[in-house]
Amino acid sequence: MKFSTKVPIRRYTNTIDYSSRILSIGSCFAENIGAKFDYYKFKNNTNPFGIIFNPVSIEKLVARAINNIPFTEADVFYHNERYHCYEVHSDRSHENKEAFLDNLNVILQLTNDQITKSTHIIITYGTSWVYQLKQSGAVVANCHKVPQTEFDKVLLSVEDIEQSIKNTIELIQSLNPKCALLFTISPVRHIKDGYVGNQTSKAHLITAIHKIINYQLSIINYFPSYEIMMDELRDYRYYTEDMLHPNKIAINYIWERFTESMISSKSYEIMEEVASIQKGLAHRPFNPDSESHQEFLSGIKVKIEQLQEEFPFMWFNS
Length: 318
Known about the structure:
10 strands, 9 helices, 5-stranded parallel sheet, 3-stranded antiparallel sheet, single chain
């Protein structure tokens, strides 16, 4: 007896393994998936400029990184005792302007390098709703708690999103034509936009992406994170207490579906070994100085050294 419908996902041809270099960009769900890559010790970088929700802001940052357009004083402003930039998340804000600009431009160069070397770039869109500065009409990635009277809230049309995605793809391919691109929609519900507004927003994103995606499983593909949450996990038990964000169970399940379709089967054994080490390192003994625990730690150390012989980039926090 079946108690849910399962979203069919064909196995991708451009799978990820431990030789892959992954760049994850986008909404807070990109952070969830990025954390899984980090846990299993893949070569992954997530949201160098912080969480970005909308397609236009992602496109702008990709364009800046690829074209090596440095951040200048004209791109930052002072508010609530910190310097901010409308193109990046408030997590990157700083109390010192010079240090802020230096940090942004270091990240910019690193992002250019990451895009150049990536074998896979995963882009997760969260919303079609954007905030535009009334003074300039520019779309912002983050309002930084500036009064809402300074912005117009606008729903991007399907055509606008489609063009933005096309621009993003062309920019990345101009620098790294062999990179596999994977798009997905965040399953996080943006109820601040209203129930109908949230559904409309997601529908615009899904429609725009599917007008572009090549269904022959080329280097541009789509992973149905949103659809899995809505159709397979159709129950509030899979949400956090705010009833908006997927909880740990849901994230783990979506990761399992991702692993089945997007990660090379030859990596599964290595992932299990990494997970074993991670669980061992997380173990907290009653008596850290006991002989048995020291033997346990020695065993973990041997496992780490064996893995690092084959994968020197793997490092574990003790």
